[in-house]
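Task card 7
Instruction: Convert sequence to structure tokens.
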Amino acid sequence: MLRPSQSELGPLNSVLDPLQSVLGPLETILGPFQSVLGPLESLLGLLRPVLGLLQSMLDPLESVPGSLESGLGPMQSVLGPLEFVLGPLQSLLGLLEQNRGAFKKQASLKLWHCTFSSTGYAKSCEGSRMAVEGHALEFCLAKEADFEEVMSISGDVYGGLDYLPVRYHAWIRDPARRVILAKKKGQIVALISVNIVDDGHTAVVEGLRVAPLERGKGIAGFIQSYCLDLARAQFPDVKVRRYTRAGQLAPETLAKFRLICKQEILCTQFKAEYILPKLEAAIAQLKESGAEWKHPILLGATDVKRVFLSPKVVDEVLPGKTIIQDWAPYQPLESNLEKLVRQDLIWMADDKEEPRVVSLGTAPYRVPLGTGYHRLNIDIFGKHFPRVRNQFLAQVQQRVGTLKGPVYCILYFEPSLWQDMLSFCQTALGLHVDGELRIQNLLEADM
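Output:
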């Protein structure tokens, strides 16, 4: 239908005048709670009768037989403008109703006003402020230009094994993710990220870090609360939030979250050029001794979906029925696998038809630990030690062949296999194992 002219819209101006404030900038809707809730409820009350009136005028016109249309010229001049106006009004009312609940939950917060480009990525945002130890704490979405300042607060994170330097730019370009900054007096003091996965039903919270001089002041709690509020408002289908945490969990943590699963963590360092001969020697010895050596099978994209979505793997192999890729949890869903297979991962299984062990290896990436250091993450799922061991050897062999220099390798696997894996790495490969990082926990709570 052609867009009606301004003269044709004239008869409706008197009806639409009260709605002009709604159709302006969204700041009038997304203001502080106390100033928004009252006008919002009044506006909803105003829109309902207006829409009812417009619909009652439109329905009879649409039902007029085609043979009578020639005699209804004046009415047709009204029909076009009504149809043009009614659609946007109905969409607006739906939007307001959808966000009404979110406003009521924002008693002390202001939901973000973010501007998005045509590609859907966040371009800018107007921050929100809270009082934190006498200073205003402002929240906003991270931008490309914030990279250096973000890195300045992350220097001591994870003992030099921080992944954020290589993921920051991809994170802020991901339309399913929000990367949030907290600023005090214009300076970045904290960061957190939320990634929407599992067909839009799960918010994975990750990447939390607070500037060293600002720790212990409650900023971590504030930015996490704000992050969840934003996820609720912008992704209304989210039902649960998930986190991965290392180490032993405090009772108060277990009281707030459901523990989905645990994986053991084994960390070791080696020089890439030195480990390759040891890997070849270990594999040759296993073949000669008949110690259940069977070379793991590399999986292509089609095989990945078939294997990782098979009921047997989901129920009996994956911990907590979850794929964990370098600390990021995903339910075994086709939409998640579509995203994962586009990454530079090595997927393996001991068997395509009856797999008992599966694994995925993340591409090595540079970390701040030292000059030339790479971090290598290998996630292995299954409880059969010989096949877990075989996939560990094959994953390392696949990755280090293209590397030079020091590698910090982190292996995640079934906790009951800890002693067997530790003994093998020390005796067969001569590796020193770092025992400081031991347990990976997957936690979940309702939104």
